[in-house]
Amino acid sequence: MKIKSIFLIVLIFIGLIGVLTKSVTVKLSINKISETDNWGPPETSGMNYFHVSNTNEFSVVKKITPAENEILQETCGYVKRNHLEPDEIPEDEDINILSKRNIFNGTDFERRGGFNAIAYAKGKVPEGTAPWAVAIGMRYSASCTGSIISPYHVLTAAHCLFKYKMATTNCVGEKIINLDINTRIYYGGTCLKKSVDMLCKTATVKEKRIRRVSYNYVYHLNLCGYGSDVAIIEVESPFKFDEMTQPICLPSPLFDEKVNIGPKEIIHNLGFGKTELNMTSVYLRRGKSLLCDENAESNNVKTVFSNGILCMRSCNTSDNIDCFGFDNMRTGICKGDSGGPDYIRMNNVTNPNDQRYMIIGIHSSGNECTPEDLKAKVYHNSVKVSYHVKEICWLTGICPESKKNQ
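RESULT FIELD:
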């Protein structure tokens, strides 16, 4: 009798998993833009990930070998060009943001000058300063940002892969996979095209096509919350690492952000997203944040260190002398910055050339990135990477050492 009861419970559990999986799969469809677009339907295999690839190909992303991982762990996180260089500033920096809003409100950055995307950033990130940053988009425009984590893999946000029929924060309704033959990974530079402020005189990025994608389906099951906004992209051919293209390190699954990141320690943010004037940027920008205060007046603070989410807030020089944006405004994460990295120094060394960097967060969501009150704090939620490292290791073979402080 006892054996029969256990068997019945197992059958019910398997049935529930099947129903749950089906309820997600039914909502997914492939957005084909031409007959040559051969993306197949999502498949499930192991853990909490769906996998999408070109038809006739094994759907799960490539896994690097233990030998490749050993080399990766020794070489990731280094900056080999323009390390610690300040951002490049347009000549019209003296025009304040209010003037810019009045003059250029509603226009497209690619066609107008007069302002410095992450909102209120100081300018363009110098070439080579963030060699792991990539833009995800089409025709040399970015819809999202990502980070190189191996010769084959880019880490980004799951919602970057989808179109949502209903523009709500809890992502109810149908989700449509938004991959087509024109989607590219732009890497190896900070300029997507020429900019009118002449910080970019030409495109400096290279491009790769996407071969496979694995994304965490728990993100949609939990109404686009609970820190599962994670996707891994495999490119069609391996990145060639040089001074312009490098992988960033992953944290250990034991890394404790609350213990190992100080209350005033700067967290760097990267993105190809919208500017403070809701205009498209054509170059990479950099912001700076701090972890949210435990007693801060924010609806997000209750999830600062729970459910795989990191709450971060904007900062200025009153928080840290090195924390500033344009006109000393607080930088904020905007549309197009999604999937980009929050990263920190992973070692304290005397020689800056020996400095290494580690990604701790993936931009996922936030409040208004350009509030009317220009001095207001701006909050954003990022996926806690350490929370997902074991799954990333299982899928990709990228496996950092299990150390609490790394």
